[in-house]
């Protein structure tokens, strides 16, 4: 008599094999081959496929049909059916690729404060600071906005094509910046094209990292965010050292070659692992806002991003206003980003242990308090202290605000959830720095700017 087994195992029979059982055996073999092919196509077999039995008859056939219908409507697998490597060479190579991605996408965006100061004093000296700030704001915003589309594409199984397209956008836009001389050219190349490419890459990377980690997901995402700290440290120093020696155009080209190397490595190492899952609702799922926790979290992210980048955008401008040499003020952004690096990794470890929200909230309050104090730092040493402490506290929010989203629904829909929150965050990142610039222009000082930006953190 046949012993029914799942589709992912071989059915074993004792005695003779009647004709109808031979047909069942062939069907089971085909099911087994299909499951094996699916596992191979995703680079690993770390999920447990629990398909209904193919050899059940009579009453069991009705149950099997019901199970198949339910699984089909949910995309073919459930969260409780999957396991995660949570380590191993392949998983950590994915993290390494994600670090290289954030190094040259989010990390390059975090360098904007240096460009803001340089453009104000040199290339775009006839343009108001608030107008120049729109370049950085659009770049920041576009690092987040494409996530609502790319995250959904990753859920559906499409990672390689959008990531390659984003890589091409970033590289081409960077080399075009070297040729720019007018405001509209910088706005188009650095603000729009570079930001869009970085956003496509960044939005596709975060869900993919989650495919490989569960219990150690906070650490993996913390290391991913650490890449942006490294980029935000290296790129400003490189720009500051190279511009006087080789000029602005060749400085940008050298930075472009660094981006080619890092994003090239990301393209080689990043990969999906879980099978695609088609959740209902389209690219933008309005139904997710029925979850009160998700709606509140979305609103909080938007408000925080209204002021989160104000200090990093204007800290070197503030330094030159109180008499600190431009040669040193350039390094304040790098100091803040360097101090953020260890914080991002530590935040990930603490988030795995205590929960991401329990770590994010107090650290965001500290960042807000430092924003209030920032304009009253009138010496070089006090500004260094602000840069270090702000980098530590600000990094906790920026590196971890996506972590709770993995727990607010099914893994098959995590890309869309992340993309939705990133889209709302983008609006805050877009309008925040120009609002700060307008307040600065109207009041002639940074005190009122700090009140606006600090309140957004609370």
UniProtKB/TrEMBL annotation:
Ranges where the record places region Disordered: 1-62
What GO cellular component is one of the record's annotations?
membrane
Q: Which UniProt key words apply to this protein? A: Membrane, Transmembrane, Transmembrane helix
Which is one GO molecular function term here? transmembrane transporter activity
Which residues does the UniProt record annotate as the domain Major facilitator superfamily (MFS) profile?
293-458
Where along the chain is composition biased (Basic and acidic residues)?
23-33, 46-62
Which positions make up the signal peptide?
none
Q: Which InterPro entries match?
A: MFS, MFS_dom, MFS_trans_sf, Proton-linked_MCT
> Where in the sequence does UniProt note compositional bias of the Polar residues kind?
1-12
Q: Which SUPFAM superfamilies match?
A: MFS general substrate transporter
Membrane topology classification: Multi-pass membrane protein
In the UniProt record, does the keyword Transmembrane occur? yes
Report the superkingdom from the record. Answer: Eukaryota
Where in or outside the cell is it found? Answer: Membrane
Q: What are the transmembrane regions?
A: 91-112, 132-151, 158-177, 183-206, 218-238, 250-271, 292-316, 354-377, 383-406, 418-439
Keyword check for Transmembrane: yes
Give the record's family classification: Belongs to the major facilitator superfamily. Monocarboxylate porter (TC 2.A.1.13) family.
Q: Which PANTHER family match?
A: MFS-TYPE TRANSPORTER DBAD-RELATED (PTHR11360:SF234), MONOCARBOXYLATE TRANSPORTER (PTHR11360)
Q: What is this protein called in UniProt?
A: MFS general substrate transporter
From what organism does this protein derive?
Answer: Coprinellus micaceus (Glistening ink-cap mushroom)
